[in-house]
Amino acid sequence: MALIRNNALRPRILIVGGGYLGFVTAQNLLKDLGRGEATVTVVDPNPYLTYAPFLPEVAGGNIEPRHAVVPLRSHLRGAEVITGSVANINHDKKFVVIEQEGYEAFELDYDQIVLASGAVPRALPIPGLAEEGIGLKRIEEAIALRDHVLNRLAEASLMEDDAERRKALTFVFVGGGFAGIESLAELEDLARAAVAQYDTLTEADIRFVLVEALGRVMPEVGEAQARWVVDHLRERGVDVYLETFLEDCTDKHIKLSNGEEFDADLVVWNAGVKANPILIDSDLPLDERGRITVRADLRVENEEGVVDGAWAAGDNAAVPDLSGEGPGGFCVPNAQHAMRQAPVLAKNLLAAMRGETVFTQYFHKSLGAVAGMGLFKGVAQMGSVELRGPIAWALHRLYHGYAIPTCERSARVFGNWVINTVMGRDLTALKDVDVPRRAFVEAANSKPAPQKEKANA
Ligand SMILES: Cc1cc2nc3c(=O)[nH]c(=O)nc-3n(C[C@H](O)[C@H](O)[C@H](O)COP(=O)(O)OP(=O)(O)OC[C@H]3O[C@@H](n4cnc5c(N)ncnc54)[C@H](O)[C@@H]3O)c2cc1C
């Protein structure tokens, strides 16, 4: 296996993951590093940051997919960007193994490491889930969900068999947290807008189902807001099942813990996240939930004290919540924390490299939560202020429109919204995105045209 040594005289700061934490940390480091002081290397399997709070709006057709991601190379000028996955971390010897699909893995050494690999869906071993389910953590999933629902409507509009059509238009969402509610609500809004295009379909033909194990939704908002969200979804025709589990979805035949069974076309899993499993095989200290243990100054720590040259925050770390708000004393995994932890991490890392011994403690009191639930629909909570409907929706757009990293991306997103407001939502479904060669292969394999015999041969 090739080893890529940092031959330059300057040390390498390796950032594992170019998501929210990794991207903003790199931005801050690049801004504050002295000339030639260090090389900043960002490794991520994707060449872009995914702005996850916009995934539901991408699925709902309100934001163009490419505008909800931030390309690393053009927005982290001066950093070394490697498109690949860190498969193994050996912090004792200070190198990582990087895999790139279709190529030989290689080792990369470093002086300082920032663990910013985020979280992955916490999928449970439910029969059929691995085969039939889809999550909403990646831009590709948001694109696929939008196309899938729109294509199903087109197909169902020609179906004569009631059971077949009912199945094609039944969409199940598991998990009533923020991401789950936003995903369901945006797609439901999209489907209702699209159904008006068909004479053979009515809104009553579409069935959206929410399955939530707890007795309430959205733990991020108060009880009254959560109850309003459930009532609002039910008014929109969504079947909301609380205190209910998905027990089986083999062959898309849904079995719920309340005894109900039905066929569905789509199972979207949004029931929580867990720390990235790549950390399990590393020699870094983890808590019982697989998160890296860190101090409030974001230095990694084990039982013996600080682990030299290792830093972590965001969804893959157990960051102490000094505001006292977080469950179990730790920050909840969200972008609000990740984006604020990043500058603290960058500042402390630079301080450590420069031999300083005083570090800033991460402290942030939650600003609250805003969620979009389809056009002009939303819910928000900031302290004791509770907002619902169009005002909450506008707040959601304003907040996230500005929060997406870089002004260039903000401008594109606001541009999308203005165009959609003037021209209407784009209901185009793309076909065969995952099999782009299909038409060419069919043409290449088609029978040659019959040769005409020459008349006077
Ligand atoms: C649908 C949805 C909606 C959300 N809405 C909100 C919201 O409204 N408000 C809010 O505050 N939060 C929201 N969140 C949560 C928020 O997106 C995350 O908490 C935040 O992105 C965490 O930042 P992070 O940098 O820790 O992880 P991420 O942003 O997930 O970044 C992790 C990065 O690591 C990369 N990576 C993974 N494995 C490897 C590897 N082996 N090697 C190298 N790189 C790797 C990934 O590709 C990714 O780019 C939402 C999440 C989802 C899924």
UniProtKB/TrEMBL annotation:
GO terms for molecular function: NADH dehydrogenase activity. Residues 12-341 form the FAD/NAD(P)-binding domain. Coiled coil: none annotated. It comes from the Bacteria. Keywords: FAD, Flavoprotein, NAD, Oxidoreductase. Its EC number is 1.6.99.3. It is an enzyme of class 1 (oxidoreductase). Pfam families: Pyr_redox_2. Belongs to the NADH dehydrogenase family. This is NADH dehydrogenase.
